[in-house]
Amino acid sequence: MNKIIIGCILSLVLIDPVLSQEKKLRTESLADINLRFELPQPEWSEAQIRKTKTESTIYTYTRKLGENKKAAQATLSVLVEHIKPTTSIKEYSTKGLLFFQKQNGFKLKKTFVDTDGKFTLPYTIGYEAEYIDVNNQKHHLYILHTIEFNHGAQVLMDFPYEQYFLYEEEQTKILQSLRYER
Question: Domain locations in the chain?
Answer without folding.
Answer: 23-180
